[in-house]
Write a structure and sequence with these properties.
The protein is α/β, with parallel strands linked by helices. It contains 5 helices and 6 strands. It is globular, with a radius of gyration of 15 Å.
Amino acid sequence: MSLLHRAGVRTVAVADVYGRDPAGGSASALARGLGWLVSGGAKVVSMSIVGPDNPLLARAIASARSKGVVIVAAVGNDGPAAPPAFPASYPGVIAVTGVDGRNRALIEAGRALKLDYAAPGADIVGSDAKGRIVKLRGTSFAAPLAAARIAAVIEGDWRAKADAEAVDLGRKGPDPVYGRGLLCGNCR
């Protein structure tokens, strides 16, 4: 059973923003991919990509959010001294960091203007393109696990449901290292 299936996800759509396009990963590619996902009925979108603030991407995310789509984004792996990462730092985006198998924050985890949740980002495995089992590490792997848990409780007040599931780590209550707590801790 896959990590996302264990996290509560039954259907996954993927927007390839790199592909064969020489400008792959550009803000326009991200905006097109996000638009495609939203037009296809996505309720939760996970973004494991980071970069500087970009007006086009900011507008695309604001548009998706105005349609009720929850955007979940990784904080990146440039370390805590790096500038805040986007899209995780856009208003209303759920920013996710990663923890290891002992629930310690990843030393390479970046930051956002505000942090919402942590999820497993190390001491986990997945399959590569050839079906081989490989070790995974980074906030890019934590974000889809948090997104999966949010998607599993999306009906009604998903925030209250996610907060009730989140395991408080670090200082009591929300903090800048673990956010509101660990989601999907049993997804390893």
